[in-house]
Amino acid sequence: MITTTAFFDGSTSTFSYIIFDPKSRDAVIIDPVLDYEPISSTVSFVSINRLRDYIHKNELNIRMILDTHVHADHMTGAYYLKNYFNAPNAIGENFVVSQAYFAKIFELEKINYAYDILLKNNQEINAGNINIKILLTPGHTPSCASYLIDNSLFVGDALFQPERGCGRADFPGGSAQELYKSIKNIIYNLPDNTKIYVGHDYPQAQEDPKFSCSVGESKQKNIMLDNLISEEEFIQKRAQKDQNLQPPRLLLPAMQVNIMGGRLPERFLRLPLTLINSNS
Fold it and tell me: Within 10 Å of residue 131's Cβ, how many Cβ atoms?
């Protein structure tokens, strides 16, 4: 039976996970955060150090670092942990779609290197003694993948807690129709007792962040996509919600780094400008 520990980064409302086999001590890391403060453009390792301290304390053997998608709200720590633990990093194969789009935006060249492994739908891989089944679940982004480990599914931003709904679908390459299919036809087809581990939570004052629910709970109670809503209804509902959402605070620096798998540029980040015509 695997052991799962969640780590919450309050600055970006992100969950990272360490999953390990108690017998072999083999472990994987999912969605690590590299801290970035945009005003001073400072990178730090507070979140990564929390993971490393836990790993060393529990004498774990890191076999793989996984990202569920190209994150728009934080920089990934996959590159640094890959080098620190000498373990491969991996992401869903449609990562290349998001990478190609944003490479043009940032006018970047020679970006072939990013992840060691691009994962295919329904592929099964072993990270030491941990078996992982890959379920590609696009919609929030083209790159989204969910990871089924035993009875636990790590969904990234496809689904949130039932009272929070699901991920937005208005990013480049995003699709409410694809997101509906990913949730309804893939995630909701798993047994009701399958445990869902989400990528984010947004607790109100005095609330603790919640990282898990079950497939059955989400099917019954998810405010955006329960088991009864039609595809047409969901697409309309998602579009109405998305049009009122602001871009993520760290979108531009995060995407530039994350299409490189978390590898930082040598000195400078590029920030594209959008010129709004003015009649004045």
Answer: 14
Radius of gyration, CA atoms only, the chain: 18
Q: What are phi and psi of 108, to 5 degrees?
A: -100, 145
- Is-contact 223 162, C-beta < 8 A? yes
The domains of the chain, with CATH numbers, are 3-258 (3.60.15.10)
Identify the three-state secondary structure at position 80: helix
Q: Report whether 33 contacts 74 (CB < 8 A).
A: yes
* pLDDT of res. 279: 62
Strand intervals (E) in the chain: 3-9, 14-20, 26-30, 33-37, 42-44, 61-66, 75-76, 89-92, 117-119, 124-127, 130-136, 145-149, 152-156, 195-198, 212-214
Residue 225 CB neighbour total at 10 angstroms: 26
Q: Note the helical H segments in 58-196.
A: 78-85, 95-105, 176-181
pLDDT at 14 over 70: yes
* 78-85 and 46-57 helices, crossing angle to 10°: 30
Amino acid identity of residue 152, one-letter, is S
Whole-number Å distance between alpha carbons of 19 and 149? 9
pLDDT at site 273: 82
**Pairing mode, strands 130-136 and 145-149:** antiparallel
Q: Report whether pLDDT(109) > 80.
A: no
User: Would you say 137 and 155 are in contact if contact means Cβ atoms under 8 Å apart?
Assistant: yes
Q: Which of 12, 22, 13 is nearest to 4 (CA)?
A: 22
Closest to 18 measured CA to CA, from 126, 157, 130: 130
Please give the backbone phi and psi of residue 232, each rounded to the nearest 5 degrees, phi first: -60, -45
Residues in the chain: 280
* Dihedral pair phi/psi, residue 4, rounded to 5°: -120, 130
